[in-house]
Here is the input.
Amino acid sequence: MSNADVHPHNHDEIDFELLGHEKGKEWVLQTNIYGNGSVGTGREEKFYMWFDPTADFHEYSILWNNHRIV
Here is the structure.
């Protein structure tokens, strides 16, 4: 069962995904934001990480309010 099977098709969503990694290359973090279940109202960004996220334990958080992601 995929995530799409669990949620209705009109939901909002924020994704953080570590993409596949090749040894010796940078890690890539991809973010996706969907509004009302549509990629047309969202956006996608890729961030090339300057550190190895598997080298230690890390905690991440999202700062947001009712109007925006900070």
About this structure: The mean pLDDT is 79. Helices lie at 3-6. Residues 3-48 form one domain.
